[in-house]
Amino acid sequence: METILVAGATGYLGRHLVVELARRGFAVRAVVRSRERAERLGPFGSPSLAAAVAEWAEGEVTDPTFVAGLCRGVTRVASALGVTRQKASPWDVDFLANLHLLQDAEREAVRSFLYVNVMHAASGKSLILRAKAAFAAVLERSPVAHQIVNPSGYFSDVGEFLDMARRGLAVLPPDPDVRVAPIHGEDLARFCADRIGDTSGSWDVGGPDVLTYRQIVDLAFAAAGRTGRTLTMPAALLNGAVWTASRLGERPGDLATFFAEGLTREAVGESYGGHRLADYFASLAEGSAVRSEG
Ligand SMILES: NC(=O)c1ccc[n+]([C@@H]2O[C@H](COP(=O)([O-])OP(=O)(O)OC[C@H]3O[C@@H](n4cnc5c(N)ncnc54)[C@H](OP(=O)(O)O)[C@@H]3O)[C@@H](O)[C@H]2O)c1
């Protein structure tokens, strides 16, 4: 049995990944900040890790002394580690913590390192995307076999459109015909697990539905069982919001830049998986899926 270290194990994707890897027969060493939280249900309907983890590594990945030695005895590493809703610098987590993990993986001569990046990170201007692109660039030059998975947005991030539809007013990005392919965490976890091995590569991946934002909003109104108004945000207003956020501080400015980038770029990739967005919205609307943590 191979042992795989999973960083970012308590996140939406990380939880699906741990469960999928355990199902495939890996012994999973999960890196978590809190085992107690890991054993509860996760954000956006993601699973508990209680039955899927063979070994726990509890600590702060931003502390290099904790990271040193984490890879001892493992054959592979997978990282879904990154700042999304957490209050932290993407340089410290997406770049530095992953870098220290890679250094440890190289020292311990692990066979492969899979990294969950973001589609089009290399051309991003936000700190989040620059930090992710910087780590991906380092990983590409590592002697360790590496798999870099570049997903579109996750189902966990498009639930906002259902919330807006329920309120009867949905705001569309400046170009509502930009296409995206949101992917469910379970599907992305299977995609990642399929790629883990001794061959290096990089893949852009999205879910089975390629949709414009206009179509996503239509699906959201249908799931909410109501008609409503849509408002297309003028580009100047979006730019103004980013400018205002950047005046409030580095973190709000960076988050606003990141969201603006996400709303204005096409993100499709290879079409993968079986979870359909319409079904996800329907399950959220009827309350059989969890919208967020707790
Ligand atoms: N969400 C999307 O639409 C999307 C799209 C494309 C790519 N991605 C990338 O996919 C990866 C996983 O995304 P996700 O939506 O599953 O994110 P998530 O739910 O926020 O999970 C992120 C993971 O990173 C850990 N983490 C974040 N900040 C940390 C910090 N300061 N110290 C220690 N651990 C920290 C979290 O630990 P805690 O649970 O302890 O906070 C969690 O395990 C991220 O790298 C993200 O950039 C996301």
Characterise the protein shown here.
The chain has about 290 residues and is an alpha/beta fold. The chain has a domain at about 5-155 and about 185-205: Rossmann fold (3-Layer(aba) Sandwich). About 45% of the residues lie in helices and about 15% in strands. It is built from eleven helices and twelve strands. The protein has helices spanning about 10-25, 35-40, 65, 90-105, 125-140, 155-165, 185-195, 215-225, 235-250, 250-265, 275-285, and strands at about 5, 25-30, 55-60, 75-80, 110-115, 145-150, 170, 180, 200-205, 210, 230, 270. α1 links the parallel β1 (about 5) and β2. The longest helix is centred in the middle third of the chain and has 18 residues, at about 90-105. The chain is globular and about 55 Å long. The two termini are about 35 Å apart. The structure holds NADP nicotinamide-adenine-dinucleotide phosphate. The site of NADP nicotinamide-adenine-dinucleotide phosphate has 27 residues, from α1 and α6.
Outline of this structure?
The chain is an alpha/beta fold and 294 residues long.
What would CATH call the class of the domain at 3-154 and 183-205? Alpha Beta
Using the 3D structure, state the CATH architecture of the domain at 3-154 and 183-205.
Answer: 3-Layer(aba) Sandwich
Counting DSSP E segments of at least 2 residues, the number of strands comes to 12
Named CATH topology of the domain at 3-154 and 183-205: Rossmann fold
Small molecules bound: NADP nicotinamide-adenine-dinucleotide phosphate
- Total count of helical runs of at least 4 residues: 11
Assigned CATH superfamily of the domain at 3-154 and 183-205? NAD(P)-binding Rossmann-like Domain
Quaternary organisation of the protein chains: single chain
- In the predicted model, the low-confidence regions spanning at least 5 consecutive residues are none
Largest sheet: spatial strand order:
3-2-1-4-5-6-9-12
Major sheet: size, sense and barrel closure?
8 strands, parallel
How much is the radius of gyration in Å? 19 Å
Give the SSE string.
EHEHEHEHEHEHEEHEEHEHHEH
Molecular shape: globular
Average pLDDT rating: 95
Q: Percent range for helical residues?
A: 40-55%
